[in-house]
Amino acid sequence: PGAPERLMIGPFCQIAHGARFIPASANHLMTGFTTYPFAIFDPATLPLILGQLTGLSDTIIGPDCWIGHGALILPGARLGAGVIVGAGAVVGGEIPAYSIVAGNPARTIRHRFAPDVIDRLLELAWWDWPLDRIEAALPALLADDLGALLAC
Question: d(Cα 85, Cα 103) in Å, to the nearest integer?
C-alpha cells in the first residue's frame, strides 16, 4: 500500500536466481528529520508520508531481456528490448535495446547486433506476435537469420 510506482516486465524475459528489483518507493524518505520507515511496521502511519510518494519512476524491463544471476535493478531503470544484464550487475538508468551490460555500475559492454538489425527487430516486435506465429518463426528466432525472420 502506498507504492504508486510500477514494475513492468515485458514478455519472454528470463530472470535468473537472485536477481532483485528495487522499486522507487523502497528508498527511505529523506525529507523529514528521520529516514526510519515507520509505515512499514505500522501501516496506520502511512497517511503521514503518502504526500511524499509522488512522481516516483516506474521500472521497466523490455521484452526478451535476460537478467543474470544476482543482478540488481535500481529504481526507475528502463531496459530496452533484448537487453542482457550480466551476473551481479547493478543497473540504473536507461539501457538501449539489445545492449549487453555488466559491472557495478553496469556499463554497456557491447551491442548484440548492428544498428540496422536492431532497428528491424524493434520494428518487427516479434514478442507481440500470436504464439503460433512465434512458434513457426523459432528456426529464424533461434538463429540470427534476419531474412528468414522477415519472411515469417
Answer: 9
Whether pLDDT at 1 is above 60: no
Q: Enter the pTM of the model.
A: 0.88
| 25-36 pLDDT tens trace | 777 778 888 888
Per the CB < 8 A criterion, the answer to whether 134 and 141 are in contact is yes
pLDDT tens for each residue of 50-66: 777 777 889 999 999 99
Query: Is 28 labeled as catalytic in the residue annotation?
Result: yes
Tell me the C-alpha distance between 92 and 138, whole Å: 32
Please name which of 131, 7, 104, 2 lies closest in space to residue 65, comparing C-alpha atoms.
Answer: 7
**Cell numbers describing residue 34:** 528521520
Give the separation between CA 86 and CA 73, rounded to whole angstroms: 11
Instruction: Report the percent of the chain where pLDDT is more than 90.
Output: 71
Greater pLDDT, 146 or 27? 146
Q: Is the dihedral of CA 113, 115, 117, 121 positive or negative?
A: positive
Q: What is the rounded CA–CA span in Å between residue 43 and residue 49?
A: 11
Q: What CA–CA distances, in Å, run from 107 to 18, 86, 137?
A: 20, 10, 32
**Catalytic residue of the set 17, 28, 69, 111:** 28
- Residue 34, C-beta contacts closer than 8 angstroms, at least 6 positions apart: none
